[in-house]
Structures
1.
Amino acid sequence: MRQFNVYSALVVPIPNEIFEWVAGENEGTVVVSPVPDTTWPLTSSSYTVPGGGGFPATANGVAGAEGTFVCDPVAPDVTTQTIVIASQGFISFCSDVNVNAGDYFVWENTTSSPIVVAPDPDNPNWWPLEADEHTVPPNGYLTVLVPEEAEDGNYPLSVTIEGAGAACPDLANQPVIKVGSGK
């Protein structure tokens, strides 16, 4: 089960994901609730999270749904806290990504090695994402935002095991980010 700190500025679960809100032991009990008169993309209206522990939460199934939340006591050094439901479920780094500009998606790495995702060097369209490459941690996840200004198109990827070569078995069909094809 993924965990999100209650004091995060941005939380991006996938549709229908059950995750855990967590608070540090020295943070005491924290109540997480939506800002009044805003939408709320979770199934419960508020969560009481014990310091040093966690509390389960469930995202609704509406991709792209979002809301603003607050914590009591308030989050230190965070002015706005937002939760956005990703555009789809977890995506393997060897699978195509079908998204629209402005979507969040989450790459999943089920291997014990870091995976580096970068534009295919032969790609004439280059790359719709902000960073030149992304590293998906071992047995972990990486949340990625497709910028609003990303142009529709197909963006072939180079996917490698950090320092060890190709990560996807079918070298003839490397994965592609398809902007403008989102669900």
2.
Amino acid sequence: MKIIFYMLATAAIFSAQNASAQEEVSALSRQSFKNGLGLHAGAATGLGFSYRYFPEKWGIQVTGIPVFNGDKNYFASSAISVLYKIKEHKKVDLFGYLGNHLIFQRYQEYLYYPDPWPDPWVEPEPTYTTSRRYNVALGVGVNIQLWEILDLSLQAGYGLSSYNNSPLTTLLSGEIGLYYKF
């Protein structure tokens, strides 16, 4: 009877030590992922491929993509955001962010003449218009751990759109990203 008791006690001690060791490994592995690569789309945090460095409380995110269509038209998105971790949980982290997004566009426009039926008919000339737009927003977000190495980031904020253009407007920004952590 004593042998069975000692075996059960030994098994209980080893399982308790194993459980605490697994919790420590899980906590260490959650902390060891400081970098993230992924795809991100947001009004104030950019559109395209994204890199995140989030070591402790403060982090940084860089996002961007150029799109060329071969017809002298292009679209380019570049953004840099500052992140601050407010609360950390096992599967969900709450953070605040300040997003800065710069958008470059060049697109084709046609000049139309005031007379809709000119005589003789003249083909409208294409002209190119270039625009730059700057969006900035402040908000909060959550990182949801889907798997140990995959995070879904959902963000919402409020800021200014077309900050560098004359008709300054406010912006309700929504952001979403999927990140592979390493």
